[in-house]
Design goal:
12 helices; elongated
């Protein structure tokens, strides 16, 4: 009886430590830090010729940031977000660590822990990379320039933040929503890693999916363009944010369930 209780207690402790172990693994490894820099570099690359001009886009940071995240170069940023942790399941299966870890705990909690960190690391990577990029361009140009009140982003969501000169919160919210998409794309890449072992193919999956989503976006709000505040009109900012978050979490849950079912079949 005592041995059975000890075994149950040991399994509970291992389940409780899945998330803690994954977070420690994320922080101690270099990909997350390289990925953050990679996102910032991707945005510089996305500026194309404007990156080499003194005033960049219209002589202000807001226009420059919007231009950077709307051009094709931003696709590379999604690959960097996946690079931070999306290949973890592929690596665990390759090195037989998944079976060992699951045997000492619980398959569902193992998968959920991995999914939470894959999603969370992608969001963090996008947000911190975006802030690094904006901080770097702010060294050269001001936040705004003349004619701001006529700017297109004043008519979109979160325009009140810009009107109130809360520029950093605006960038954080914008980047956070891009991170929500990055999290879904990274989980899609993790799901693909259940079928293929080529890490390069796994890492370019977010780029391919993001490009397809952008090419075939419909006219309604339910598409990948939802992450861009300048292109959407909702009753309130909070309604807009919760809609974007809800869509992101729903698709993340679907990929997490798919990963769980595949791992159960493989093991």
């Amino acid at each position: 009886m005592a041995k059975e209780l000890f075994t149950k207690g040991e399994k509970w402790m291992n389940r409780a430590h899945y998330l803690k172990t994954d977070i420690r693994r994320l922080i101690k490894n270099y990909p997350i830090y390289l990925a953050i820099v990679g996102v910032a570099v991707s945005m510089w690359f996305s500026l194309e010729d404007y990156a080499f001009t003194e005033e960049m886009v219209n002589g202000n940071a807001l226009d420059t940031y919007h231009f950077a995240v709307s051009m094709s170069g931003i696709m590379i940023a999604y690959a960097f977000c996946a690079f931070s942790y999306a290949t973890v399941l592929c690596e665990d299966l390759e090195h037989k660590y998944a079976r060992y870890s699951i045997n000492r705990g619980n398959t569902w909690k193992y998968v959920v822990s991995k999914a939470v960190v894959v999603y969370g690391s992608s969001v963090i990577t996008m947000v911190l990379g975006s802030l690094l990029f904006v901080a770097s361009i702010r060294l050269k140009i001001p936040w705004t320039s003349e004619g701001l009140q006529d700017a297109f982003f004043m008519e979109g969501m979160y325009g009140s933040l810009i009107a109130g000169e809360h520029y950093w919160p605006y960038v954080v919210l914008f980047a956070l929503q891009m991170g929500m998409l990055a999290g879904v794309l990274s989980l899609a890449a993790s799901f693909l890693s259940m079928f293929v072992s080529n890490k390069m193919l796994v890492l370019i999956t977010p780029v391919l999916i993001q490009q397809i989503l952008m090419e075939y976006s419909g006219k309604g709000w339910f598409n990948a363009m939802l992450i861009y505040p300048t292109l959407n009109r909702f009753s309130t900012d909070i309604q807009y944010f919760l809609t974007a978050l809800g869509c992101s979490l729903c698709f993340s849950a679907l990929f997490t369930w798919g990963i769980y079912k595949k791992i159960k079949n493989r093991l």
